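Recall the central idea of this unit: under ordinary conditions, the amino acid sequence of a chain determines the structure it adopts. In this exercise we apply that idea directly, starting from the sequence alone.
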Amino acid sequence: MTALTDRALRALGRFNAAHPWDHNAHHHRWILRRLPRRPHRALDVGCGSGDLARLLATRATAVRAVDADPEIVARARELTAPATPVTFAVEDALADSGDDGAYAAVTCLATLHHLPLAPALLRFRERLAPGGTLVVLGLSRPATPADHLLGLLSIPLNAATGWLRNRGRPAPRPVAMTAATRDAEETLAEIALVAERILPGARIRRRLFWRYTLVWHKPATP
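Accordingly, the structure predicted from this sequence is:
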């Protein structure tokens, strides 16, 4: 099955190069529906070129968007209108920035697998205000038959989505700048075990297009 999946993914990569679409942006509206309607402050960890941060800024009073890559942060600033209430910063996601308990919403898209899992979840918990919400869109290492089946189902659906979004035509246009990526190391079961210890009650779900989601609401009182 692994060899078949690898060949299919290579073919899919060639198709996606001609019919590109953003797997993370596909989940943006879903993410917004899980967050407070009007968060006072929001934090986007691993902001990339800033698409989600700018969307958060349509609802939040202020958004802080951080990424460890200086080039991609510079690009995010270029793409953002001056009046948008977003502050972009080059920052280590685990750094002590003196903003514990500051954010009503914390988001992290396709970034958690680049970080040490437990320290990152602890840091997100600390930065979240009482009653606030954490939403993670992450990648995990396929390990179970369900993981592999969902991955295989995603292949034709991914191609169909790219075809429809590009109206059946190749789209040799530049796509959003992204940082270097690497494969996830933890399985979904391993992520769930760590999350349950650090974020009791967190809801984790497998998703199409090689993603999972984690949603956690920080208690309003200790």
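The first strand starts at residue 41 and ends at 45.
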